Protein backbone atom coordinates (compact mmCIF):
# COMPACT_ATOMS: atom_id res chain seq x y z
CA UNK A 1 0.00 0.00 0.00
CA UNK A 2 1.33 3.42 -0.98
CA UNK A 3 2.36 5.87 1.70
CA UNK A 4 0.58 9.13 2.54
CA UNK A 5 1.73 12.24 4.33
CA UNK A 6 -0.35 11.23 7.33
CA UNK A 7 1.37 7.83 7.53
CA UNK A 8 4.79 9.46 7.19
CA UNK A 9 4.05 11.99 9.93
CA UNK A 10 2.62 9.37 12.27
CA UNK A 11 5.37 6.79 11.75
CA UNK A 12 6.66 5.86 15.19
CA UNK A 13 10.03 4.45 16.11
CA UNK A 14 10.46 0.96 17.46
CA UNK A 15 13.26 -1.05 19.01
CA UNK A 16 14.26 -2.18 15.52
CA UNK A 17 14.42 -0.52 12.12
CA UNK A 18 10.96 -0.18 10.50
CA UNK A 19 10.69 -0.02 6.69
CA UNK A 20 7.56 1.51 5.14
CA UNK A 21 7.22 0.92 1.39
CA UNK A 22 5.70 3.31 -1.12
CA UNK A 23 6.24 1.15 -4.21
CA UNK A 24 8.80 1.17 -6.97
CA UNK A 25 11.59 0.55 -4.47
CA UNK A 26 10.93 3.74 -2.46
CA UNK A 27 10.98 3.18 1.29
CA UNK A 28 10.78 5.29 4.43
CA UNK A 29 13.11 3.89 7.07
CA UNK A 30 12.13 4.73 10.64
CA UNK A 31 15.23 4.42 12.79
CA UNK A 32 15.16 3.37 16.48
CA UNK A 33 16.39 6.91 17.19
CA UNK A 34 13.24 8.34 15.60
CA UNK A 35 14.80 9.74 12.44
CA UNK A 36 12.96 8.98 9.20
CA UNK A 37 15.08 8.46 6.08
CA UNK A 38 14.15 7.97 2.44
CA UNK A 39 15.83 5.07 0.68
CA UNK A 40 15.49 3.73 -2.88
CA UNK A 41 16.22 0.04 -3.47
CA UNK A 42 17.16 -0.82 -7.06
CA UNK A 43 19.17 -3.28 -9.13
CA UNK A 44 21.91 -2.34 -11.54
CA UNK A 45 24.20 -4.65 -13.46
CA UNK A 46 22.74 -7.60 -11.57
CA UNK A 47 23.53 -6.14 -8.16
CA UNK A 48 21.17 -4.93 -5.45
CA UNK A 49 21.87 -1.32 -4.50
CA UNK A 50 20.51 1.38 -2.22
CA UNK A 51 20.28 5.13 -2.80
CA UNK A 52 19.79 7.69 -0.01
CA UNK A 53 17.24 10.40 -0.90
CA UNK A 54 17.29 12.53 2.25
CA UNK A 55 15.27 12.68 5.46
CA UNK A 56 11.59 13.28 6.12
CA UNK A 57 10.07 15.87 6.48
CA UNK A 58 12.97 17.90 5.00
CA UNK A 59 12.36 15.89 1.82
CA UNK A 60 8.61 15.54 1.40
CA UNK A 61 6.80 12.47 0.11
CA UNK A 62 6.20 14.17 -3.22
CA UNK A 63 9.87 15.11 -3.54
CA UNK A 64 10.97 11.57 -2.65
CA UNK A 65 8.67 10.18 -5.36
CA UNK A 66 10.08 12.65 -7.87
CA UNK A 67 13.63 11.54 -6.95
CA UNK A 68 12.55 7.89 -7.39
CA UNK A 69 11.12 8.62 -10.85
CA UNK A 70 14.30 10.49 -11.84
CA UNK A 71 16.37 7.48 -10.77
CA UNK A 72 14.14 5.14 -12.77
CA UNK A 73 14.70 7.20 -15.89
CA UNK A 74 18.45 6.94 -15.38
CA UNK A 75 18.14 3.17 -15.03
CA UNK A 76 16.22 2.98 -18.30
CA UNK A 77 19.08 4.88 -19.94
CA UNK A 78 21.59 2.37 -18.54
CA UNK A 79 22.98 4.78 -15.93
CA UNK A 80 23.58 3.87 -12.30
CA UNK A 81 21.73 6.53 -10.19
CA UNK A 82 24.14 6.05 -7.29
CA UNK A 83 27.20 6.66 -9.44
CA UNK A 84 25.54 9.65 -11.08
CA UNK A 85 24.84 11.11 -7.62
CA UNK A 86 28.51 10.72 -6.67
CA UNK A 87 29.61 12.54 -9.83
CA UNK A 88 27.14 15.35 -9.12
CA UNK A 89 28.54 15.73 -5.61
CA UNK A 90 32.07 16.08 -7.00
CA UNK A 91 30.92 18.71 -9.50
CA UNK A 92 28.93 20.49 -6.81
CA UNK A 93 31.99 20.62 -4.53
CA UNK A 94 34.03 22.14 -7.35
CA UNK A 95 31.35 24.79 -7.90
CA UNK A 96 30.57 25.45 -4.26
CA UNK A 97 30.70 29.02 -3.01
CA UNK A 98 33.61 28.12 -0.73
CA UNK A 99 35.75 26.61 -3.50
CA UNK A 100 35.16 29.54 -5.85
CA UNK A 101 35.85 31.99 -3.02
CA UNK A 102 39.15 30.19 -2.39
CA UNK A 103 40.03 30.61 -6.07
CA UNK A 104 39.19 34.31 -5.85
CA UNK A 105 41.44 34.76 -2.82
CA UNK A 106 44.29 33.00 -4.66
CA UNK A 107 43.73 35.39 -7.57
CA UNK A 108 44.13 38.35 -5.20
CA UNK A 109 47.40 36.88 -3.93
CA UNK A 110 48.76 36.48 -7.47
CA UNK A 111 47.77 40.08 -8.22
CA UNK A 112 50.00 41.19 -5.36
CA UNK A 113 47.27 42.48 -3.08
CA UNK A 114 48.44 43.32 0.44
CA UNK A 115 48.34 40.61 3.09
CA UNK A 116 46.12 42.87 5.19
CA UNK A 117 43.59 43.14 2.35
CA UNK A 118 43.54 39.39 1.80
CA UNK A 119 43.14 38.76 5.52
CA UNK A 120 40.11 41.08 5.60
CA UNK A 121 38.51 39.28 2.66
CA UNK A 122 39.05 35.88 4.28
CA UNK A 123 37.73 37.19 7.61
CA UNK A 124 34.54 38.41 5.94
CA UNK A 125 34.04 35.21 3.96
CA UNK A 126 34.20 33.19 7.17
CA UNK A 127 30.90 34.81 8.15
CA UNK A 128 29.27 33.50 4.94
CA UNK A 129 30.55 29.93 4.94
CA UNK A 130 28.20 28.45 7.60
CA UNK A 131 25.19 29.47 5.48
CA UNK A 132 26.32 29.28 1.84
CA UNK A 133 29.86 27.86 1.87
CA UNK A 134 29.00 24.32 0.77
CA UNK A 135 26.13 25.24 -1.55
CA UNK A 136 26.55 25.11 -5.31
CA UNK A 137 26.96 28.74 -6.33
CA UNK A 138 24.29 28.43 -9.03
CA UNK A 139 21.73 27.43 -6.41
CA UNK A 140 22.30 30.34 -4.03
CA UNK A 141 19.50 32.91 -4.11
CA UNK A 142 19.18 36.40 -2.56
CA UNK A 143 17.11 35.10 0.37
CA UNK A 144 19.84 32.65 1.40
CA UNK A 145 22.52 35.34 1.21
CA UNK A 146 20.32 37.67 3.25
CA UNK A 147 20.16 35.00 5.97
CA UNK A 148 23.97 35.03 6.18
CA UNK A 149 24.02 38.83 6.28
CA UNK A 150 21.35 39.03 8.98
CA UNK A 151 23.44 36.81 11.24
CA UNK A 152 26.12 39.50 11.17
CA UNK A 153 23.72 42.42 11.27
CA UNK A 154 21.77 41.15 14.29
CA UNK A 155 24.98 41.50 16.33
CA UNK A 156 25.03 45.22 15.57
CA UNK A 157 27.88 44.91 13.08
CA UNK A 158 26.21 46.92 10.34
CA UNK A 159 29.38 47.93 8.52
CA UNK A 160 30.66 44.32 8.52
CA UNK A 161 27.34 43.13 7.07
CA UNK A 162 27.55 45.76 4.34
CA UNK A 163 31.12 44.77 3.46
CA UNK A 164 30.18 41.10 3.53
CA UNK A 165 27.47 41.70 0.93
CA UNK A 166 30.02 43.45 -1.27
CA UNK A 167 32.59 40.66 -0.82
CA UNK A 168 30.05 37.94 -1.64
CA UNK A 169 29.18 39.94 -4.74
CA UNK A 170 32.81 39.98 -5.90
CA UNK A 171 32.93 36.18 -5.58
CA UNK A 172 29.78 35.88 -7.69
CA UNK A 173 31.18 38.21 -10.34
CA UNK A 174 34.33 36.09 -10.45
CA UNK A 175 32.11 33.01 -10.88
CA UNK A 176 30.28 34.76 -13.73
CA UNK A 177 33.59 35.58 -15.41
CA UNK A 178 34.65 31.92 -15.13
CA UNK A 179 31.30 30.62 -16.51
CA UNK A 180 30.08 29.08 -13.25
CA UNK A 181 27.29 31.50 -12.41
CA UNK A 182 24.81 33.51 -14.45
CA UNK A 183 24.10 36.41 -12.14
CA UNK A 184 24.98 38.21 -8.93
CA UNK A 185 22.14 37.79 -6.40
CA UNK A 186 23.62 40.42 -4.07
CA UNK A 187 22.39 43.13 -6.45
CA UNK A 188 18.82 42.38 -5.33
CA UNK A 189 19.86 43.05 -1.71
CA UNK A 190 20.78 46.69 -2.17
CA UNK A 191 18.94 48.63 0.48
CA UNK A 192 18.06 45.51 2.47
CA UNK A 193 20.62 46.10 5.22
CA UNK A 194 20.74 48.70 7.98
CA UNK A 195 23.03 51.52 6.91
CA UNK A 196 25.85 52.03 9.42
CA UNK A 197 26.22 55.45 10.97
CA UNK A 198 29.34 56.94 9.44
CA UNK A 199 31.59 58.43 12.09
CA UNK A 200 34.64 60.27 10.73
CA UNK A 201 37.93 59.53 12.43
CA UNK A 202 38.58 62.06 15.15
CA UNK A 203 41.25 64.63 14.36
CA UNK A 204 42.55 67.80 16.02
CA UNK A 205 42.51 70.72 13.59
CA UNK A 206 42.75 73.64 16.02
CA UNK A 207 46.39 74.85 16.11
CA UNK A 208 46.34 75.54 19.85
CA UNK A 209 44.95 72.09 20.64
CA UNK A 210 47.44 70.52 18.23
CA UNK A 211 50.27 72.16 20.15
CA UNK A 212 48.94 70.57 23.32
CA UNK A 213 48.83 67.17 21.66
CA UNK A 214 52.42 67.52 20.44
CA UNK A 215 53.59 68.37 23.93
CA UNK A 216 51.69 65.38 25.31
CA UNK A 217 53.40 63.13 22.77
CA UNK A 218 56.81 64.50 23.69
CA UNK A 219 56.09 63.84 27.38
CA UNK A 220 54.69 60.34 26.77
CA UNK A 221 56.28 57.95 29.27
CA UNK A 222 55.50 54.72 27.43
CA UNK A 223 57.65 52.84 24.92
CA UNK A 224 60.17 55.18 23.22
CA UNK A 225 59.35 53.55 19.88
CA UNK A 226 55.67 54.42 20.32
CA UNK A 227 56.54 58.03 21.10
CA UNK A 228 58.73 58.14 17.97
CA UNK A 229 55.91 56.66 15.88
CA UNK A 230 53.46 59.31 17.06
CA UNK A 231 55.97 62.07 16.28
CA UNK A 232 56.47 60.68 12.78
CA UNK A 233 52.70 60.35 12.30
CA UNK A 234 52.37 64.06 13.04
CA UNK A 235 55.29 65.10 10.81
CA UNK A 236 54.79 62.72 7.87
CA UNK A 237 51.03 61.93 8.18
CA UNK A 238 51.09 58.52 6.40
CA UNK A 239 48.38 55.94 6.94
CA UNK A 240 49.08 54.21 10.28
CA UNK A 241 49.59 50.83 8.63
CA UNK A 242 52.18 52.29 6.26
CA UNK A 243 54.25 53.50 9.21
CA UNK A 244 53.72 50.55 11.58
CA UNK A 245 55.27 48.06 9.17
CA UNK A 246 58.02 50.38 7.89
CA UNK A 247 61.47 48.82 7.41
CA UNK A 248 64.83 50.52 7.66
CA UNK A 249 65.78 49.64 4.10
CA UNK A 250 62.98 51.94 2.85
CA UNK A 251 64.76 55.05 4.19
CA UNK A 252 67.45 56.93 2.32
CA UNK A 253 68.98 59.27 4.89
CA UNK A 254 71.40 60.83 2.41
CA UNK A 255 68.55 61.90 0.10
CA UNK A 256 66.14 62.44 3.01
CA UNK A 257 63.37 60.35 1.52
CA UNK A 258 61.20 57.44 2.63
CA UNK A 259 59.97 55.18 -0.19
CA UNK A 260 56.93 53.17 0.86
CA UNK A 261 56.64 50.02 -1.30
CA UNK A 262 53.48 49.49 -3.33
CA UNK A 263 52.55 46.35 -1.35
CA UNK A 264 51.79 48.53 1.68
CA UNK A 265 50.09 51.36 -0.17
CA UNK A 266 46.32 51.52 -0.44
CA UNK A 267 46.48 52.47 -4.12
CA UNK A 268 49.14 49.84 -4.90
CA UNK A 269 51.90 52.08 -6.17
CA UNK A 270 55.13 53.20 -4.45
CA UNK A 271 54.97 56.46 -2.55
CA UNK A 272 57.81 58.85 -1.76
CA UNK A 273 57.79 60.90 1.43
CA UNK A 274 60.25 63.81 1.83
CA UNK A 275 61.93 63.76 5.24
CA UNK A 276 62.29 67.09 7.03
CA UNK A 277 65.30 67.65 9.28
CA UNK A 278 63.15 66.93 12.33
CA UNK A 279 61.98 63.61 10.90
CA UNK A 280 65.56 62.57 10.17
CA UNK A 281 66.46 63.44 13.75
CA UNK A 282 63.65 61.28 15.16
CA UNK A 283 64.64 58.40 12.85
CA UNK A 284 68.29 58.69 13.82
CA UNK A 285 67.42 58.40 17.51
CA UNK A 286 65.02 55.57 16.79
CA UNK A 287 67.71 53.63 14.92
CA UNK A 288 69.73 53.44 18.12
CA UNK A 289 66.79 51.57 19.68
CA UNK A 290 65.44 49.33 16.90
CA UNK A 291 68.11 49.58 14.23
CA UNK A 292 69.34 46.07 14.93
CA UNK A 293 66.36 44.54 13.14
CA UNK A 294 64.53 45.19 9.88
CA UNK A 295 61.49 46.91 11.42
CA UNK A 296 61.35 50.43 12.80
CA UNK A 297 58.61 49.47 15.23
CA UNK A 298 58.94 45.81 16.21
CA UNK A 299 56.42 44.24 18.57
CA UNK A 300 57.53 43.70 22.15
CA UNK A 301 56.69 40.01 21.63
CA UNK A 302 58.61 39.43 18.40
CA UNK A 303 61.23 41.39 16.44
CA UNK A 304 59.82 39.96 13.22
CA UNK A 305 56.36 41.47 13.70
CA UNK A 306 55.43 45.18 13.81
CA UNK A 307 53.44 46.82 16.57
CA UNK A 308 49.69 46.16 16.47
CA UNK A 309 46.97 48.31 14.90
CA UNK A 310 45.88 49.51 18.31
CA UNK A 311 49.26 50.53 19.73
CA UNK A 312 49.19 54.16 18.63
CA UNK A 313 45.53 54.73 19.50
CA UNK A 314 46.07 53.09 22.89
CA UNK A 315 48.93 55.52 23.54
CA UNK A 316 46.64 58.46 22.73
CA UNK A 317 44.06 57.07 25.17
CA UNK A 318 46.75 56.74 27.82
CA UNK A 319 47.59 60.40 27.30
CA UNK A 320 43.95 61.24 27.99
CA UNK A 321 42.62 61.69 24.46
CA UNK A 322 39.34 59.85 23.88
CA UNK A 323 38.51 58.19 20.59
CA UNK A 324 36.15 61.05 19.80
CA UNK A 325 39.05 63.52 20.18
CA UNK A 326 42.11 62.06 18.46
CA UNK A 327 43.18 58.98 16.50
CA UNK A 328 46.39 57.93 14.79
CA UNK A 329 44.68 58.18 11.40
CA UNK A 330 43.45 61.64 12.37
CA UNK A 331 46.94 63.10 11.89
CA UNK A 332 46.21 62.91 8.15
CA UNK A 333 43.10 65.07 8.49
CA UNK A 334 45.02 67.44 10.75
CA UNK A 335 47.74 67.97 8.16
CA UNK A 336 45.31 68.17 5.25
CA UNK A 337 43.15 70.79 6.97
CA UNK A 338 45.93 73.07 8.19
CA UNK A 339 48.06 72.81 5.05
CA UNK A 340 45.08 73.76 2.91
CA UNK A 341 44.03 76.57 5.24
CA UNK A 342 47.45 78.21 5.26
CA UNK A 343 47.18 78.87 1.50
CA UNK A 344 50.90 78.35 0.87
CA UNK A 345 50.70 75.07 -1.05
CA UNK A 346 48.99 73.84 -4.17
CA UNK A 347 46.07 71.51 -3.30
CA UNK A 348 47.44 68.90 -5.73
CA UNK A 349 50.76 68.84 -3.87
CA UNK A 350 48.92 68.25 -0.60
CA UNK A 351 46.77 65.50 -2.12
CA UNK A 352 49.80 63.87 -3.69
CA UNK A 353 51.60 63.87 -0.35
CA UNK A 354 48.54 62.24 1.22
CA UNK A 355 48.72 59.60 -1.56
CA UNK A 356 45.15 60.31 -2.55
CA UNK A 357 43.88 59.36 -6.00
CA UNK A 358 41.69 61.81 -7.89
CA UNK A 359 38.22 60.32 -8.43
CA UNK A 360 37.58 62.20 -11.65
CA UNK A 361 39.14 60.33 -14.59
CA UNK A 362 39.86 63.50 -16.59
CA UNK A 363 41.41 65.32 -13.66
CA UNK A 364 43.44 62.25 -12.74
CA UNK A 365 44.94 62.23 -16.24
CA UNK A 366 46.24 65.78 -15.63
CA UNK A 367 47.29 65.21 -11.99
CA UNK A 368 50.09 62.72 -12.45
CA UNK A 369 52.83 65.19 -11.57
CA UNK A 370 54.71 64.40 -8.41
CA UNK A 371 54.99 68.07 -7.30
CA UNK A 372 58.16 66.80 -5.69
CA UNK A 373 60.07 70.06 -5.18
CA UNK A 374 57.03 71.75 -3.69
CA UNK A 375 56.36 68.75 -1.44
CA UNK A 376 59.95 68.82 -0.13
CA UNK A 377 59.52 72.48 0.84
CA UNK A 378 56.05 71.84 2.21
CA UNK A 379 57.12 68.98 4.47
CA UNK A 380 59.97 71.06 5.94
CA UNK A 381 57.58 73.97 6.49
CA UNK A 382 55.10 71.62 8.17
CA UNK A 383 57.76 70.22 10.53
CA UNK A 384 58.90 73.76 11.41
CA UNK A 385 55.30 74.77 12.01
CA UNK A 386 54.73 71.82 14.36
CA UNK A 387 57.87 72.85 16.27
CA UNK A 388 56.45 76.35 16.59
CA UNK A 389 53.14 75.05 17.95
CA UNK A 390 54.85 72.71 20.37
CA UNK A 391 57.35 75.23 21.72
CA UNK A 392 55.06 78.20 22.39
CA UNK A 393 55.54 79.64 25.87
CA UNK A 394 52.34 78.17 27.23
CA UNK A 395 51.43 77.14 30.74
CA UNK A 396 50.58 73.41 30.53
CA UNK A 397 48.47 71.80 33.27
CA UNK A 398 46.73 68.40 33.47
CA UNK A 399 43.05 68.34 32.56
CA UNK A 400 40.71 66.32 34.75
CA UNK A 401 43.61 64.44 36.24
CA UNK A 402 44.08 62.50 33.00
CA UNK A 403 47.39 64.09 32.10
CA UNK A 404 46.24 65.76 28.89
CA UNK A 405 47.87 69.17 28.51
CA UNK A 406 45.68 72.25 28.31
CA UNK A 407 47.14 75.30 26.59
CA UNK A 408 46.21 78.65 28.11
CA UNK A 409 48.28 80.95 25.92
CA UNK A 410 46.68 82.22 22.68
CA UNK A 411 48.37 80.94 19.56
CA UNK A 412 47.96 82.01 16.00
CA UNK A 413 47.03 79.67 13.18
CA UNK A 414 49.13 78.73 10.20
CA UNK A 415 50.86 81.78 8.71
Determine the number of helices (DSSP H or I, runs of at least 4 residues). 16
Helix content: 40-55%
Radius of gyration, whole Å:
32 Å
Structural class: alpha+beta
CA(first)-CA(last) distance: 97 Å
Strand content: 5-15%
- What is the average of the pLDDT values? 85
Number of strands: 9
What does this structure look like?
The structure is a single chain. The chain is built from 16 helices and nine strands. It is of the alpha+beta class and 415 residues long. The chain is 48% helix and 12% strand. Mean pLDDT is 85; it is low at 359-367 and 394-415. The chain has helices at 5-10, 61-76, 81-94, 97-110, 115-133, 142-153, 158-177, 207-218, 224-236, 240-244, 277-290, 311-318, 330-342, 347-353, 361-366, 372-391; strands spanning 18-23, 26-30, 36-44, 47-56, 251-252, 257-260, 271-274, 396-399, 404-407. The strands form three sheets. Strands 1-2-3-4 form a four-stranded antiparallel sheet, with helices on one face. Strands 5-6-7 form a three-stranded antiparallel sheet. Strand 2 and strand 3 form a beta hairpin.
